[in-house]
Design goal:
It is a single chain. This protein has 163 residues and is an alpha+beta fold. The protein is built from five helices and 13 strands. It has a domain of 103 residues. Helix content is 25%, strand content 27%. The chain has a four-stranded mixed sheet with strand order 2-1-11-10. The longest helix is centred in the N-terminal third of the chain and has 18 residues. The protein is elongated.
């Protein structure tokens, strides 16, 4: 009876050791601006894209100062709509978001490091200054109207393009 109990104990111990995931597989490092953020918990990509990085939604603010809100991923006054496919449970597809906003990503899969460039819409000077760039367009009578003509007033600019 005792030898059987020893074998069972060894077998269970062996199963526990084999079924535990390696700690390094769940970690990733994100480089963004002047930060190096080590993430202890990252998700798996449902499509098995090797360079995809799914981060916890709660980690997003410390990565790039964005936070998820009902209107999208928001950072200060800038909100970028995100499709539902970019979120899954408590995770957010950071590399999918980077593609959506035109952000460059470099990945070292072996080291599990993702490096992200600055987000173009956030790095624009007009976002920091909250001043739109100057432009001029003809009105219905053909007179040239400049945006600066309305300085100090609220202006709604509506544009349309055929392409």
């Amino acid at each position: 009876m005792k030898p059987a109990g020893v074998r069972t104990g060894l077998f269970v111990l062996g199963v526990l050791c084999l079924s535990a995931p390696p700690a390094a597989a769940a970690q990733a490092t994100v480089l963004y601006a002047d930060r190096a953020i080590v993430l202890d918990d990252v998700g798996t990509d449902p499509a098995n894209v090797p360079d995809a990085l799914w981060v916890r939604k709660t980690d997003l603010p410390r990565i790039n100062d964005f936070e998820l809100k009902p209107q999208g991923a928001c950072r200060k006054d800038v909100c970028i709509p995100v499709p539902k496919s970019m979120t899954r449970g408590g995770y957010f597809n950071l590399t999918g978001f980077a593609r959506r906003v035109g952000q460059s990503v470099v990945v070292d899969r072996a080291a599990r490091v993702w490096s992200f460039s600055e987000i173009p819409v956030v790095s624009g000077a007009f976002v920091h200054s909250r001043i739109a760039p100057e432009f001029a367009v003809p009105d219905r009578q053909g007179h040239l109207v400049r945006l600066s003509d309305f300085r100090g007033k609220k202006v709604l600019v509506v544009t349309w393009a055929s392409w």
